[in-house]
Amino acid sequence: MSKLNLLLHAGHQIVRHYAHLSYTDWKATLTQGLDGFNIFLTYVGTNAKHTYFDVPNHAFSPKKRALGAQGVVCGIVKNF
User: Fold this and answer.
1) Rounded CA gap, 80 and 73, in Å?
2) Which of 7, 25, 34, 37 has its CA 20 to 30 A from that of 59?
3) Whole-angstrom Cα distance, residue 5 to residue 3?
4) Summary count for the chain: helices (H), strands (E)
């Protein structure tokens, strides 16, 4: 078993002449190697304004989908 790793990311997207579309994003990932596999858990998020980054889920649904939403992703990766 390999050691636990922490990967951090922070960024800022600037949209010239449309400051209301600018936003900050972040990500924190924990990874652990285990018998040829990498297991990871990632938290991602932004402070993007919902007014500009929420879009229809699909053409026939009134529900909105938040493109700037925060969430957690986990998984297992195998390199060959």
Assistant:
1) 22
2) 25
3) 6
4) 1, 6
pTM: 0.73
Query: By three-state DSSP, how is residue 12 classified?
Result: strand
What does the pLDDT look like over 8-26, one tens digit per residue? 999 999 999 998 889 999 9
Apex CA 23: angle with CA 20 and CA 27, to 5°?
A: 165
d(CA 79, CA 6): 19
Distance spanning both ends of the chain, measured CA to CA: 18
Sheet containing 23-34: give its strands across: 4-13, 23-34, 37-46, 71-78
Q: How are beta strands 37-46 and 23-34 bridged, if at all? A: antiparallel
